[in-house]
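User: Run a structure prediction on this.
Assistant: Running it now.
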Amino acid sequence: MCTFCWLYKDEGAPSFRVRSRKEIFEDLKRIKASSSHATNFFLGGTNSICVETSLLCSILHFINEHFPHPQHINSYARAFDILHKNDSELNKLHENGLQTIYMGIETGSATLLKKCKKGITPEEMIRASKKAIQAGFILSVNVVLGLGGKQFSDEHVVETTRILNSINPHMIRFRTLHILPNSPLFLDLQAGIFEELRPREFLEEQRRIIKNLTISSEIFNDHVSNYAKFSGKLPAEKNEMLSFLDCIINNHHEKFSRPDLTIKFIEKE
């Protein structure tokens, strides 16, 4: 499990497991009984693509058969598991209605991927992403601002920009690092091994990444962890996004609040 992640870290928290076919289809039948006109579906859990392809196709078939007009069927996926499915398996999932895959790239830095125990290399990230796009999926990738702290900030920016330019995902979603007490990275923070960025520095990282992107992705800065909310399409709206970030960086002081992951700027008095 990644060092910045808090899932499955609490004492007594359930371990990750693939649920049985019986459990899954009991849930689907309950959903059908209570919400027969549902149109949006997200295959739950942190990594549905690791499930056997035949079971996933059965789930997708059930959705398409029992709900009148499913408009969106989406899922999280790890790059590792995309690489371990062959092209035929991925094509079957797409043909059966799986549309969008959400994948956590987090960073393009080999150093940081190793430090945070992501279990994959930048080049494997690129291969998995291109494989998903080739299979017809809409690909949305997450990037974690500040993941390198102060020591590796430059490397994080340069290598993340490189990997994004190589992939050209349909969507890029920025998240801002928030170190929770039950994550392994919190111990590094307490020990002084990891030095967290200041609010302004998170935004400066993001500005540098967006400035150097040469692709046609759509940017979403819409997560509760972020210091500002905006979106835009590259390359047409790049300058507008950069101007927006400049305005925030230059016109707000260093006092920001992030209570309970509810983020807002505190204006100058």
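DSSP finds ten helices and nine strands in the chain.
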